[in-house]
Amino acid sequence: MENPLTPEVLADPVALTRALVDIESVSLNEKALADCVEEVLRGVPHLTTHRHGNTVMARTDLGRSQRIVLAGHLDTVPLNNNFPSTMRGDLMYGCGTSDMKSGVAYALHLAVTLPDPRYDVTYFFYEAEEIESEFNGLNLVAQAYPQWLEADFAVLLEPTYGIVEAGCQGTMRAIVGTTGERAHAARSWRGVNAIHAAGEVLRRLETYEARRVTIEGCEFREGMNAVRINGGVAGNVIPDRCEIEVNYRYAPDRDPAAAEVHLREVFAGFEVAVTDAAAGAAPGLEAAPAKEFLAAVGAAPIGKLGWTDVARFAAMGIPALNFGPGDPNLAHHKDEHVEISKIRDGAATLHRWLAPTA
Ligand SMILES: [Zn+2]
């Protein structure tokens, strides 16, 4: 196959977005796209390029005092009658237009066209962000070549509709259990109903007042919710067990340990088992490249409501934020699309930030 990422396409972030969308790359099927990206980057004299699996990394080594990362995932969620791309006026439709090949296009366009950025830049094009963490290209690189990730600041080009979404919330899932005693439903007073006992758990969730926390000017709005409930034995048996699965989204001023302490406080008197936890990430807007980036964007940042790979950078002590042209509300949606003008605006912003000062 001839590489569709020609010099003319690489010079235009819009054409590049479309070309990237039209190379199918559902998670675990990124090889063809990674091959095309790698071939392009290996031909660029000012970059050093490496590959691990279907993750491609390229970096400048200009001896700048600061290094930044621009990162985008190559994979998409499964196709949904939205491949290849189509154009309707100012909108480009198709799987991955918003999440996040328009963001990937920024990184690839800058990698090729900006030989002398004002910081050293490491560009990441990584595999398998949309599926389990064990396949995630950044996660695999962090294990195999952690030195590839060294930087002072990172931008993940995930869809944010052209504003800065800084940091991210943490997430925790737990099972809150109630126990009772089985009895025949005809003699219910001989048993203890575990489903009735769950009422108190649900009341605590219903009256729970979630925190709103402002960190570095970004508001994070927490939430604690029942997301599943399980209980009951048979139509004529008083149930002896009920389990309520709770999802807690917490602001990044709490680490998973503090989040668990809080969760156990809320459900004091009940059995609580944490099944899954991921730390959030502080906004990290104090780093010099971050401040300059915010100045280039010219709009106030907000807190990221959701967990993204910025947390992987934060865990390595690298401040990171999300910035991309796509609308996050359309990610994973059949009608996924991106606005052409948003692609152009964001590309201009990144160029303002990274172009050498005259
Ligand atoms: Zn994404």
Task: Write a brief structural summary.
The protein has 358 residues and is α+β, with helices and mostly antiparallel strands. The protein is built from 10 helices and 19 strands.
Strand elements, count = 19
- Provide the residue-averaged pLDDT: 95
Task: List the helices and strands in order.
Answer: HHHEEEEEHEHEEEEHEEEEEHEHEHEEH
Fraction of residues in helix: 25-40%
The neighbouring-strand order within the major sheet is: 1-2-6-3-7-18-8-17
Distinct ligand kinds: zinc ion
Distance between the termini: 41 Å
* Proportion of beta-strand residues: 25-35%
The helix tally amounts to 10
Which residues form runs of ≥5 with pLDDT under 50? none
Radius of gyration: 24 Å
Shape: elongated
Largest sheet: 8 strands, mixed
Structural class: alpha+beta
